[in-house]
């Protein structure tokens, strides 16, 4: 059984604690472009969505990586970037359909979520559980249960 | 520098010149940031006797050293200027994401001076700054301005702007950022309008660093735990927003009703946080780095009041609700939307309508004055319409645009205005809660709850419970809270962090962030210094001990119903002790010894003829 980050955007308050914690963990300073995830807010609607690497099963960033810096970890199953092998060609940036692999000109490297090695700071710092680090087999349990509760309410009346 | 960026942006709107200056580290250390640094710059650079709406007044946008870090709920900024409503120093605090964006763009503060020949906006991107024509934006609401400026600059730009109310120089116009957050009080938006400055858009990918990242991270984790474990900071505010206070204050009879004619509103629960959650709440929202999430994204579907936006907060629900005798949450929320869209302070707006209602019911103003509007207490439609008229500068709204003091004075009854230093008292009745009255009377920006929120100990019982009806020990308590809040505001933290932490934790956060060692005593002394410098500015501006007062109603008319029935404020008994404990003389002027102890000798010298 593995773990994954589960995002529930309807719980996101747009506070950016996840991005700040990510930047602090990886770069020891607060610089939002250095974060491996980004929060997008629609101010009129008051809605925010955190965006980060989904560690895809069929990850488009892996086959395009010529130096084999982007690989799938055989043990964890995570999409892993080896900075030592990366040549900065940015093919992963082009390939990712979500924009979740990014080039950072300040540090001169590709930035991509590494799950903080198994203890993701974004989930720790999210004050509303919009981002949770959960067992992959029960990842959608909370959402299913919440929806099931609506059925229950409807039928209980 | 760590914590601070170390750079000031100075913009002369008259000449169009833009320049950068280094931030003096000694000044940063002594005044911390935000409200503190802004006060120091205003005091040094502006003649306190200036007309607030004249080009000689300056408008200062300033962040704190914690702004842009992940210090919990530490992402705030302050607008400091001479207030249009009050003629006193104004320091209006706001959250959202604008303050952090200013730092990421390379500046701790922006000083705006002079007056542009035509409407302009300031565009700041990664250190570069330019003034751009805003003639085509003049007249636009806050959301429309925000969208239009983004379309012309950067889709990620953070925008602080005025709405039409600021353009018309409504004396209590505010500055809005992130569309829904507000640097609300004292008329800072009117000052911005007087300078022909429509907006400041900012974007940046820069860095905020900490002197000691390990110490900072560990201090942050401790602070998070304390706030999240607190019943108010961790639970109540997220569940119900600040509007959770309606029922609490009403229950103790401290919820001002019908222009402070009473302290209890029988149907207040209809506009309280619990009703808000059930009726209009879409979801909670947080400011930058916030772990509390008290913001309310709301939607009203009632056809008469339909709209979407944020709010109401407690003060707003009270101002448009109980203070106007209105218990219709949809109407209250609609009035809130008008204020956010047109850029008005909801407290002064609500309280001014309430004052107008009392004038109307007493026959001091007539339907002829109001253009036929029946401004009776409880008339929700009239309340919303009065707000719309003020927002859009129509008809009787032009009279309301002056605030309740000038309105009531114009009709010969200034005593019916519930103000201190011409600024409306917020939603805690000083007759039911003795300490808050002393705070209202002495707050340098005019009546405000956020200068010394003694409601925490007097009503909510945190960090310790004190007797709300006693006056013993209240001067000490008020001074403690005022000094703590001044230093906290200066750091960039949100006042609501005090539901969980105090000066010890804030000093630790600041020390780790900046590398300047602040003991708890140093931190509180900074607050004392800021408070006294604000006071010196006001004395220079011509305010004096007579302005440290409460409306006669609060001192003479006992509450008629509710749990605090029969009470009046005993404020006059507390004031002499307050002055004495502050180190001020009987006329409320800081003594030379006090100013020397705070390192304000030079500032006293320029205040010259004070004492």
Descriptive account of the structure:
The complex is a heterodimer of chains A (157) and B (611). Chain A has one domain: Alpha-Beta Plaits, CATH 3.30.70. In chain A, 24% of the residues lie in helices and 20% in strands. Chain A has four helices and eight strands, in the order βαββββαββαβα. In chain A, a hairpin with a 4-residue loop joins β6 and β7. The longest helix of chain A is centred in the last third of the chain and has 16 residues, at 141-156. The mean pLDDT of chain A is 94. Chain B is an alpha+beta fold. Chain B folds into three domains: 7-203, Aldehyde Ferredoxin Oxidoreductase,  A, domain 1; 241-424, Aldehyde Ferredoxin Oxidoreductase Protein, subunit A, domain 2 (Orthogonal Bundle), CATH 1.10.569.10; 434-610, Aldehyde Ferredoxin Oxidoreductase Protein, subunit A, domain 3. Helices cover 41% and strands 13% of the residues of chain B. Chain B is built from 26 helices and 17 strands. Classes of the chains: A alpha+beta (157), B alpha+beta (611). At the A-B interface, α1 of A face α7, β13 and β15 of B.
As for the number of domains of chain B, it is 3
Average pLDDT taken over every residue of chain B: 97
CATH topology name of the largest domain in chain B: Aldehyde Ferredoxin Oxidoreductase,  A, domain 1
> Strand count, sense and closure of the main sheet of chain B?
6 strands, mixed
Beta-strand share of residues of chain B = 5-15%
Domain count of chain A: the total is: 1
CATH C-level class of the largest domain in chain B is Alpha Beta
Strand content of chain A: 15-25%
Secondary-structure content class of chain B: alpha+beta
Main β sheet profile of chain A: 2 strands, antiparallel
Overall outline of chain A: globular
Give the total of beta strands of chain A: 8
Please bin the fraction of helical residues of chain A: 10-25%
Q: What is the residue-mean pLDDT of chain A, rounded to a whole number?
A: 94
Number of helices of chain B: 26
Biggest protein-protein interface?
A-B, 27 and 39 residues
CATH fold-type name of chain A: Alpha-Beta Plaits
Spans of at least 5 consecutive residues with low confidence of chain A? none
The span between the termini of chain B is 38 Å
Distance between the termini of chain A: 39 Å
